[in-house]
Design a protein that fits this description.
alpha/beta, pyruvate-formate lyase- activating enzyme, 2 domains, nine-stranded mixed sheet, 17 strands, binds iron/sulfur cluster
């Protein structure tokens, strides 16, 4: 498998916190956005230098809501990327842009989209979540379904031809029929890619607090699973390839039987153990077998990167929350855990290759034999899942069936 390298840039600001959100994000209005952009520019330069200005296959600016930054702030960040990394020609360059954050007037939105084009963005990802205004209100989203339709029209007018829309299901009070109605409206917008996630109630969020107080009626598991399988069916029939548990890409016109050209190349890096460099508050990275996570303290982050140390020889450093060198077992375990998210699953050869990158050794006995030697304790249970039609085990590797996805965490945990 060809290894590639991605760059993830985190923008931790949003107009308002959604009721279910546990992501690292702060109120954009009251946060030091300019200082943060300056700190990011400094980290990008540092990481580029530290890694020898590597070749980058994908850039993903996520959040939070990156589109709340001013054009000039985003321009500085992307300029720094171009100076510190060798971004490949044809690289996938994505920005997350939530509806109603691109601009209040069409002219402003078009100007922002035009600026994104100049900066090199060729893929847009929008958090739609629902096409029903009552459900959007329940989620605490700041936009309406009409905003989504309008933004999408302007995005197309500016020539973006690779757009992802995020959709959520199992919103409190939502039925399978409601979710399919949302999906139908999203399909009318003909996005190249759709991510569908079941709402997770997280501790410490307004929804989490309501659930503890018994004020939130969650969708029962059985209905959640029924909705998921119906979504998979409808998207399959609409010509989308279900290539990862929650991700669907429209099939290419030229080769409808081959892999979709609209698969997210950046997210695919995470699932095949490629390297990715994370920059920004709380961002994670995986480079040369090392996993790290930047600090989540915004003041610490900005100060460390924008106030140069005065002592002679002292270097600017990114404050880290985690820093860990994977061993061979970490590598193979992560390769299986993330690889099983893909519908094509994992190949023994790739998983064993990830193991040997850190642990050494040989595959003289063959990758399949080596794989099951490493996971000998998991073999019996894995075969049991295969007998139940939840997992497919063949001579090349293993993959979940659509039913197996319902208990994916249980199956994946065998390999941890
Ligand atoms: S827009 Fe996304 S990151 Fe921001 S608060 Fe809502 S869910 Fe969280």
């Amino acid at each position: 498998m060809t290894k590639r390298t991605g760059l993830y840039i985190h923008i931790p600001f949003c107009v308002k916190k959604c009721n279910y959100c546990a992501f690292l994000s702060f109120n954009a209005e009251t946060s030091p956005r300019r200082e943060y952009a300056d700190a990011l520019v400094s980290e990008i330069a540092l990481r580029g230098e530290e890694l020898g200005h590597p070749v980058i296959d994908t850039v993903y600016v996520g959040g939070g809501t990156p589109s709340v930054l001013d054009i000039s702030q985003m321009r500085d960040i992307m300029h720094a990327v171009g100076k510190s990394f060798s971004v490949k020609e044809g690289a996938e360059i994505t920005i997350e842009a939530n509806p109603a954050t691109l601009g209040r007037k069409d002219g402003v939105t078009l100007a922002k989209l035009q600026a994104y084009k100049y900066m090199g963005f060729n893929r847009l990802s929008m958090g739609v979540q629902s096409m029903d205004n009552d459900r959007l209100h329940c989620l605490g989203r700041i936009h309406t379904a009409e905003n989504v339709v309008r933004d999408m029209e302007l995005i197309r007018r500016k020539g973006f031809d690779n757009v992802n829309l995020d959709l959520m299901f199992s919103i409190p009070g939502e039925t399978t029929r409601d979710a399919l109605d949302d999906l139908r409206k999203v399909l009318e917008l003909a996005p190249e890619h759709i991510s569908c996630y079941s709402l997770q109630i997280e501790e410490g969020t307004p929804f989490g607090d309501m659930a503890v107080a018994g004020e939130l009626t969650e969708v029962p598991d059985e209905e959640d699973r029924e909705t998921y399988h119906e979504i998979c069916r409808v998207l399959r029939e609409a010509g989308y390839e279900h290539y990862e548990i929650s991700n669907f890409a429209r099939k290419g016109a030229e080769d409808p039987d081959g892999p979709s050209p609209y698969r997210s190349r950046h997210n695919s890096l995470y699932w095949d153990m490629s390297d990715y460099i994370g920059v920004g508050l709380g961002a994670s990275g995986f480079t040369g077998g090392r996993r790290y996570k930047n600090t989540s303290d915004i003041e610490e982050y900005i100060n460390a990167l924008t106030v140069p140390p005065i002592h002679e020889g002292a270097r600017v450093k990114v404050p880290l929350e985690e820093d860990h060198l994977n061993d061979g077992f970490d590598n193979i375990s992560e390769a299986v855990f993330t690889g099983l998210r893909r519908r094509e699953g994992i190949r023994y050869a790739d998983a064993v290759d990830a193991y040997m990158r850190r642990a050494g050794g040989s595959t003289a006995a063959g990758p399949k034999e080596e794989f099951w030697r490493i996971f000998s304790e998991a073999k019996e249970e894995a075969e049991d899942y295969a007998r139940q039609g939840l997992l497919i085990i063949d001579d090349e590797g293993l993959r979940l069936t659509e039913q197996g996805i319902d208990i994916s965490n249980q199956i994946m945990s065998l390999f941890v």
